Amino acid sequence: MSDLNTFRTETRAWLEANCPESMRVPIRSFEDIYNGGRNPEISHPDQKVWCDRMAERGWTVPEWPQAYGGGGLSKDEAKVLKEEMARIGARPALDSFGISMLGPALLKFGNEEQKLEHLPPIVRGEIRWCQGYSEPNAGSDLASLATRAEDKGDHYIVNGQKIWTSYANKADWIFCLVRTDSTGTKHEGISFVLFDMATPGVTTRPIKLISGSSPFCETFFDDVPVLKKNLVGEEGKGWTIAKYLLTHEREMISSFGAAGGKKTLGQRAAENMGTDASGRLRAGTLRSVIAQYQLDTLAFAATMEKVTAEAKAGQGLGPASSIFKYYGTELNKRRNELLLSVEGEPALGWDGEEYNEGEIARAWLRSKGNSIEGGTSEVQLNIVAKRVLGLPDA
Amino acid sequence: MTLVLNEEEIMLRDSAAGFLAETANVDAFRKHRDNPSPTGFDPALWGSIAEMGWCGIAIDEAHGGLGYGFTGLGLIIEQMGKNLTVSPFNSTVLMAATAIAQFGTEAQKQEWLPKIAAGEVVMSLAIQEGSHFDLDSLSTSVSMQGDGFAVKVEKRQVLDAISADAFVVVAKDTAGYQAFIISADQVSVRNQSMVDALSSGTVVIDTSLTAEAQMDANSLNNGGLERALDMMNIGLAAELLGVSIEAFEQTVGYLRERKQFGKVIGSFQGLQHRAADLFAELELCKAIVLKGLRAVDAGEDLSGLGSAVKAKLAQISQRATNEGIQMHGGIGMTDEYNIGFFIKRARVLEHTLGDFHYHLDRYALQGGY
Hints:
- The complex is a heterodimer of chains A (394) and B (369).
- Chain A is an alpha+beta fold.
- Chain A has three domains: 2-123, Acyl-CoA dehydrogenase/oxidase, N-terminal domain (Butyryl-Coa Dehydrogenase, subunit A, domain 1, Orthogonal Bundle), CATH 1.10.540; 129-237, Beta Barrel (Butyryl-CoA Dehydrogenase, subunit A, domain 2), CATH 2.40.110; 259-388, Up-down Bundle (Butyryl-CoA Dehydrogenase, subunit A, domain 3), CATH 1.20.140.10.
- Chain A has eleven helices and eight strands.
- Chain A has a four-stranded mixed beta sheet. In chain A, strands 2-3-7-6 form a four-stranded antiparallel beta sheet, with no helix packed on it.
- Chain B is α+β, with helices and mostly antiparallel strands and 369 residues long.
- In chain B, helix 5 runs antiparallel to helix 7.
- Chain B has three domains: 7-121, Butyryl-Coa Dehydrogenase, subunit A, domain 1; 124-217, Beta Barrel (Butyryl-CoA Dehydrogenase, subunit A, domain 2), CATH 2.40.110.10; 220-366, Butyryl-CoA Dehydrogenase, subunit A, domain 3.
- In chain B, a hairpin with a 2-residue loop joins strand 2 and strand 3.
- Chain B has helices spanning 7-23, 26-34, 43-51, 70-83, 89-103, 106-117, 217-257, 269-297, 306-328, 339-351, 356-366, and strands at 123-126, 142-145, 148-159, 166-172, 177-183, 187-193, 199-209, 259-260, 263-264.
- In chain B, 54% of the residues are buried.
- The A-B interface holds A 264, 266-267, 269-270, 275, 278-281, 287-288, 290-292, 294-296, 298-300, 302-303, 305-306, 309-310, 312-313, 315, 319-320, 323, 326-327, 378, 380-382, 384-386, 388-394 and B 2-4, 252, 255-256, 263-264, 266-269, 271-273, 275-277, 279-280, 283-288, 290-291, 305, 308, 311-312, 360-361, 363-365, 367-369.
């Protein structure tokens, strides 16, 4: 315990000395988040300074082993670091798919050479990654993907198209699912490969959504050479890695549902639309729908709390975790729908300062994608029905 | 207090589950329904329940209980819901004992709580007037009379009214709430036959009471009544949870077996999605009930939580039991099949101390809108 106290004292002093004042301000928009990369997008010069200082100690990814550039901190130490950062309002120094997605997969499935090559640049924010999963004809049915990797001895030649590739136009490397064999079942013959987005034959095109511009891209591969040393795991066994990462991704998306401002929807409605003498919202039918939403939000938060507590107590991830992605995203859609009802006309604005650049309307439209990306609500229900309830296939 | 059961609690839950499944199960309920005993419950079973210490589980040690807490009580009640157990546990232990512990005088606690803990008395709570439970619509029925009080009121949906030895009666005078402990010989009871086949009645009170019968009006009018009712509703929600889980499990079991069109009907996506969605809701129910129970034990403010727990469970128990019948199809409508018992129990539990609409409205008001 005293070791942890020493660690806290030292960490506090170091953060005080090294975290720039400008990085002690809450994140207000996507531009405030630093994603790193060869050509990093910088909204404030201190972003890179802060990232470099943290990366030098491995603290951009505190719990990864030091051998791969990480901080090598224990869970308790990492918690202390987080608390001390929160104490001074320090922003996370770096946020990237490399940290949240590829890193965990490489640590679990990659070989030593791959870990040494790819993990340290992720820690230092030098290489930004994107994920090549979905294809135009392989959405919910991801395993039917058709991007082909032909065996050419020491390398593959990759041809095909990916879609919904977040930040493909800004990423330096891609982790990508390709088909190396089409003779077996659709789950077999999928391989997990890594390659540089600057390789000749790779092109990207941004996708505009109903909510306006988006991070999503279409990504095209035209005779792209990929060295075999960049195959992660065994050839044809990439589906296992894909599933692992999808579970991971679903956990991240489900947490969107827990979002919410300081004021509840009900309180905002009371301010906007007025209450009667008894304190009840005048809009009676809306009031019931809001209350129902708040109730489910409370119960969902309790469910997250319970599952986390059970996991901490060593009881493993219960079946409840399988509903997070489904329930969280549906809840978020309900919240956005209600927000329009509560705010009324100003929420429909699209452009201009008066309408805050259409923030509410854009978030509302964007939320529709939550129950599609990372496995649709319907696919999640299929999974619960089959794996948890033991109901048979049709 | 984390939302995870510790080993002791798991043991308690499992032993309650084992005992009830053996002796106070759905078959026992059916026998009771077909041939009810005059007391409204099986005295031998009630004796066994008391012997195991369940009646005193949430009563503090100073008053003859085990002081184990409300979470333990909730775990037992949940198992009773699963088994459709017939006993005066809710009326006596969940409702009367909670009321006495929250707003009884010290003398009343010393007189009644040890007896409840030992299973020596059956008591009940008489509070509802008219068709719906609604605190705001209680009539002014109490007046001063010398050193004591005169009370004239009719209380409805009083559980186990016919067998209760005494009642906690919550009423109003011109200043606010008043509560009394009134013995059975001072009231008259009209027994009611309710849809769930459990004992319930209307208690007609027209009597004079001494000052000793009066409960702690100060505590009652300063949050004590609301807290007691929130606790009771969380307990009722625990029973609704048991009812809902059991109805759901029986239904999913049926989906795995029943064949139509040459296939097990559980393979149809239309049914799978409804079942999976209900599963999700039930996971939320488990979490929020445990959150409510833990909050009681931690002494947390229950405003905004008690009504949330009850409303959520009221709503999802309706859905679980309705889907239970629909997914069973024709046989779900037959009296011979057990699934119909669950919708009946759930509906009466829901209406006890406020239904879905009452609690959703209260939850919204407490949330500031």
